[in-house]
Amino acid sequence: MTAMSLAALRSKSETIIRTPAEIAADLARSFALTAAGYDADAAFPHDNIRLLHEAGLAALTAPAELGGGGAGLAEASEVIREIARGEPSTALILIMQYINLATLPKSRWPEHLVRKVIGDAVRNGALVNAFRVEPELGTPIRGGLPATTARRTADGWSISGRKIYSTGAEGLTWAIVWARTDEAEPRVGGFLVPMDAPGLRIEKTWNPLGMRATGSHDVALDDVHVPLDHAADIRLPSEWDTRGEGQAAWFGTLPGALYTGVAEAARDWLVRFLKERVPTNLGASLATVPRIQQAVGEIEELIAVNRRLIASAARDVDEGRPFSLTEGGLIKVVTTENAIAAVEKALKLTGNHGISRNNPLERHHRDVLCGRIHSPQEDTVRLGAGKLALGI
To answer: What is this structure's pTM?
Structure first.
């Protein structure tokens, strides 16, 4: 099913037989079979991305009038959670795709650029992501101007600099490069750069503990030329908020959905293990032990809270009741910490079996810990929430 056919189905009165989340669940079961290999090799999941496109999920959040699926945040969250149960690096790449396809049409970008990026996603499954983090600057969400510079030329811009932690770099068609201009009063913003542009190279530096298949390598730009209108949205620094209009709710919600999916995958493996493990001194499966049952209940509690919180927050956004930047950050922190706690509880119940590389639980643990890395991070979120409450 293509994104075009998915949008067409939505426009008809008949009931859709399979929802995007159900399609994602089927794909996730397939992705789970190769997830350990991608983790071991830190290879980019090209096959997973291709299958997402073929299933009509690569452009799910693009507007229906542009050929996309027209999905809102609630539906996107369900798809991300399901995909993450199978292979979470694929889900993170898809998060970046979903956020950009959903928010670019509402941005200040020129319409023809929006149509180009979204058209490529709809027709070819082309991926797009923003490159913001730099070696010296870190993440722009903490303030400061990028070192990456766009120099004005006779017919466009020449961009030079280095980006790190560039999620999905190996598989992208388009990059939105966060850069400053060389003007006397610098402007800053996103420049649309094709990944095959001369002067752009990917340096394969990504070798993390978890989420190893995201292809988040360094990207170096050496006098990369783009047309004048590819300065898609550049402004004075004071004119930007911390995430750009429309993105805060998505960045606050989708990471929690992803890591909840990881926690569910860990829970599923744990349940099978407890049912199958029959110690000789017990004469029954571990699943029959009340203490074990209570501990599993604690894991269920964390997952249930996450799913309800994410669903409620996403529904509010879709129904025109957006929450504040502070709330978005708190939702991200609470849901990722709950997911981490759920997987850690599973590890405590399994002992050596849980940390064995022959079992997937240790991989789920490494993956879920990465939830703390994504912006907004715990310290900035709680500091901001505290200052707001105190009126400071």
So the answer is: 0.92
